[in-house]
Amino acid sequence: MNERHRLVESLLCLVREYSMTAPGETVLVAVSGGPDSVALVHALWSVREELGITLYVAHLNHSFRGEESDNDARFVWSLASSLSIPCVIEKVDVPRMRQMLRLSAESAARLVRYEFLENTAEKIGAARIALGHTADDQVETVLMNIIRGSGTDGLAGMPPVRGKIIRPLLGVRRTDVASYLQEQGLSARIDETNLLPHFTRNRIRLRLLPMLREYNPGIDTVILQLAELARADSAYMNAEASKVFKRLTIACDTGAVTLDRGELLGLDLAIRRRVVREAVKSVRSDISDLGFRHVEDLLGLLATGGDFRYELPAGVFVECERGSIVFRSERQRDVPIIYKYEIAVPGETPIGEAGVLIKAEVIESHLEPVRSPDDTEVILDLDKVKGTLVARNWQPGDRIQPLGMKGSKKLQDVFTDRKIPRRVRHRIPVIQDGERILWVVGVIISDVAKVTDSTQRCLRLRAVPVSPCSYDRKVV
Amino acid sequence: MNERHRLVESLLCLVREYSMTAPGETVLVAVSGGPDSVALVHALWSVREELGITLYVAHLNHSFRGEESDNDARFVWSLASSLSIPCVIEKVDVPRMRQMLRLSAESAARLVRYEFLENTAEKIGAARIALGHTADDQVETVLMNIIRGSGTDGLAGMPPVRGKIIRPLLGVRRTDVASYLQEQGLSARIDETNLLPHFTRNRIRLRLLPMLREYNPGIDTVILQLAELARADSAYMNAEASKVFKRLTIACDTGAVTLDRGELLGLDLAIRRRVVREAVKSVRSDISDLGFRHVEDLLGLLATGGDFRYELPAGVFVECERGSIVFRSERQRDVPIIYKYEIAVPGETPIGEAGVLIKAEVIESHLEPVRSPDDTEVILDLDKVKGTLVARNWQPGDRIQPLGMKGSKKLQDVFTDRKIPRRVRHRIPVIQDGERILWVVGVIISDVAKVTDSTQRCLRLRAVPVSPCSYDRKVV
């Protein structure tokens, strides 16, 4: 047997250290076509028998670069074919999704990618999803977290294993990837994200890291060591906090948890902070917008000893009364956001949950129906609108009669057809009058209030992004 | 009463939050003459009655910039006089000390400064030593620690209180210092360290931070928040580790500690790492050169299950045998370094403990005695040297007959006269023959082997720095 490339050695070492795979399992490998993921799928393929695993390739066409993106997809397809690995490719219009949701390109891409990978893994029965993140990605992630604002948890960077996700190349440097590709005579596509210089990650790679290497040539190593130390610290403290959280819990309902106030106050500061985060987490799965200040302010109020009410981000209410403190969410379990707003006509109606403002304008003449490039504007026949106009979030069972069609269609199917990820569906405003759905912002327009030759008064609706986006800012 | 400047408000707030002073106490304020320390001493003076404290000013003349340093001292003297605060000023030749000890300018200055402040505080009976570090210094410290290599402890930055040391301006930004000085009509000297562009700290201030502010304009705030979070995490975990360390200790002697091996292995990784550091600390006070790799390698050996011996930096030996693991230091308590090396004549003798190489050369002719500007070279009369030449560290009771003097003098008094800090004395090589001390490297030359007109063979000794200095690199 030939001597193995150090990339393969490092991969095997990490796979074993973290028990990333078990014999008989199917591993779905996410392949963008960039050097890292090409090396990952090839290296896993070379040791597939030794590990006793079956491979599957998944590629998401983000549509960021038009034809180039399509070429990436073709490239991945032939790579998988050449290794006789089955391959799933899906195309999503991320740029459009991104605009609709007011997410950064990076966040939108990540959201859509993870949803696609998880769904695919479920369909094909894969136990694991392998991602091609390298040690260099880890260094960049840790620095990015420091810059955005982070505590010990963020310094830990990406974990080698989280749920189904595994990162077998996390011990491998990019230089090793390059030498592996060369040795194996493999080519790779240029990583699309490298072409988006506004990404913080790329600025870190191209400007910040070179400067830091002047200060300390071993900066990559010390950052990786910091991540390793922080990961153990963070795991230990979160486990402690989790135990303490259970002990302090007096009552726990769907969307509400009650803790013992005196006990909470008596905790060590580091654990107290984490128990608060744990409490918020228990009533709301995503706590990415829970910042340092929110927690500190809440703890400050708690320390004063009086009773109080305090609102945390995204509708988590805290009520402190006598011996207990209650964290309550307005949301139900599977419908993380519920809202319904009457739309002012004419006027402006902010839909905070969707991060948009609906501008309604009445125009006393016939207008041509427009459809803005990203579907954020519609013109309706005002006289066909019945009763009050409202904006609300999507509900199962919703139906729409699409523009130009006779029958109606389930909104669920529309979302599926348009590949709109499940997780983002609840953020999209559905505009309806007293009877029917007229418009799903950025997604579909109904036939029922369309402008015709006989239209006399028009209603122009526009969805305009409001307030700086908070989804991307992750403090603590 | 006038409204107070926010600098004073912030200072009072921090002093109270951390109980930095108590009524009746004397506080020694370290004043360099730079804006921060001038603002500190003035603000403390303005609230001295409210806090019930007595102030004292201390200034160390580092001699880094010759006459300018003397002017700093004069400036501090008049500032203290104008506020009627007693003032202690001392002058130390740090540049010389630095070369002698192979320390960076920054480390040497810090070492000497802390020793001076502690001694002065003891002499005048000050309960506290106040330093002028600001929030901006904190941000730079955290970034510097990240760059040099650090775990959670280093991310915590400078603590507001540690022993006698207090930092009342740690919540204050430099911009507030400037506005306070202006408001009070105070002037300040340009901070000397700002004139040394090779300091990592200054590069961080002048180049790195401006770049990071482009990525996140609130970078200073998120770094301060990170420090705050890390401080609580670090305090909690170190307290846990300390408890566990006591529990695991089977035996504890001067310079040796024995732990239960099985129990150590059973600990959570984060605590296991800290218990190892605690064990090393218990046999050696300074663990700044104990790096990430040392701890990881030791834990790796431990996990293999076999018996082993392992050497940690600076003479700490680890022996693992059956159920126990022993950490042993070669050093005694108050003499942290003991060494004695025979000097090769002619030849080169490395003195690792002092970071120098002693080069000995025999010259068969009469040479003029030279004294290099920093006393790192001497020329002796070889025929007056009796027996073997050795280099060893200083011992209490050592005496020398200084060049040009008849009687002898205690080395201890020589060190005191020359203001050589206690902590660095044991690093300085003392060169003696079979009978007498001939040279204390960089400090003093003896009369007994001096070159005279009748000298026929000369011995030239030179102390040359060796190997990159490790005192400055602090990993983990």
Give a verbal description of the structure:
2 copies of one chain form a homodimer. Chain A is an alpha+beta fold. Chain A has 3 domains: 6-215, Rossmann fold (3-Layer(aba) Sandwich), CATH 3.40.50.620; 246-329, Uridine Diphospho-n-acetylenolpyruvylglucosamine Reductase, domain 3; 340-465, Phenylalanyl-tRNA Synthetase, Chain B, domain 3. Chain A is 40% helix and 21% strand. Chain A is built from 16 helices and 22 strands. In chain A, the strands form 5 sheets. Chain A has a 6-stranded mixed sheet, with helices on both faces. The first copy, chain A, has a 5-stranded antiparallel sheet with strand order 7-8-11-10-9. A 5-stranded antiparallel sheet of chain A has the order 12-16-19-20-21, with no helix packed on it. In chain A, helix 2 packs across helix 9, helix 5 crosses helix 6 and helix 11 (219-248) crosses helix 13. The longest helix of chain A is centred in the middle third of the chain and has 30 residues, at 219-248. Residues 467-476 of chain A have low confidence and may be disordered. The A-B interface holds A 146-152, 155, 200, 203-204, 207-208, 211-212, 215-216, 218-219, 221-223, 225-226, 228-230, 232-233, 235-237, 239, 268-271, 273, 292, 475-476 and B 146-152, 155, 200, 203-204, 207-208, 211-212, 215-216, 218-219, 221-223, 225-226, 228-230, 232-233, 235-237, 239, 268-271, 273, 292, 475-476.
